[in-house]
Fold this protein.
Amino acid sequence: MKFLSNILLFSLVLGCYTGECYGQADTVSRYVLYFQFDKNVLDSQYMNNSTWLQEFDRIFNDRNIASKIDSVVITASVSPEGAVRYNQELSSRRAKAVEQYLVCKYPYTKQYKILLNSIGEDWAGLQQLVEEDANAPYKEQILKTITSDVDPVIKECQLRQIEGGRVWSYITKHYLRHLRVARTCIVFSPKKGIEKCIEQPFEECVELPIDKVVPEQEITEQRTTAVVEQPIETQVETLTKPLFAFKTNLLFDALLLPNIEVEVPIGNRWSVAGEWIFPWWLSKDNSRALQVQSGNIEGRYWLGRRTNRKQLTGHFVGLYGGGGYYDLENKSSGYQGEFYIAAGVSYGYGLRLSKHFNMEFSIGIGYLHTKYRHYHGEQNNTVLMWQNDGRYTWVGPTKAKVSLVWLIGNKTGGRR
């Protein structure tokens, strides 16, 4: 019976990889998670991984759907470049990384049959991509090389030499990233309820036997990498949500204009920020003054996919307004007045530096109106002689910021 069971499991794995699923399951869902070159870390922001990880949330967090899951099959592969034995190990680590992601984020998946399959270098996948590409250069020569019976290392070397490396550049640009994947096949069985699933004893994950690896040969063009036992990395990362953030505009700081800003996130897409600018400089002889008290408030909407993205990072648009008063004097001649900014529109980008610090870049365009009074200082600037009043209106850039952001009061926000 154990032998027959293993045969059925192997058929299920093979079917999920080739596009057909066999066994007693009624329906199957397939997802493809992509890995960056030479990595076995599951990056939620790489290619379209975020879409499929959201689908995992939809499936595994829905009691009715999860109750019908029978097993999960993970088949990982790598692009055919580099040392064959190392690539076999890398594909195995990629499959295990996806398994750890599922088990850590959805602990009850331990009750399912989780099957891992590592196929190493995906030459069959490369052949399919070339066949489907009508614009592939030297297509017949590429396919002849891929389907030949020579050692994989020699195949790669031959592909690199076609047209002096230009064909390999095309292969690298258009195909290889689609082969660094872990195909996840979720098999459903409506006869299996979630209670029954939880009651079942934990079943150890089974990794199917790996095909015999062809011995490697040393070739000068080949990147040789020693096979080293490496710890399995996962992308199960605790997300954090700041309660608020302190900021300072480095452009103002460089001009000795003290300023501070506080921003409070509201959900994943909204935030409210308030800024205060307060330089208050006056020379000893009262001949020069740079005194400003200015405040503004801004509402922001953060763009793009926000799932698994740290708050207050990425692109945003905003609407702001504010005002203040000023006293600007140079060599006994100056202006005092009040101003306000209305209907200001901003755009910016928040860049993550570390767990507690971001860098932010933004610019704003708005409507500014001021009423001013022109004066002249006499008697060693102890007496101000008012000369005339005026008004001034400006429509255009009203702020530019390069801000250092300090995130305060992080709280756990979940896992990815």
Q: What stands out?
A: The chain has ten helices and 16 strands. Residues 1-26, 190-239, 412-416 have pLDDT under 50 and may be disordered. The longest strand covers residues 383-408.
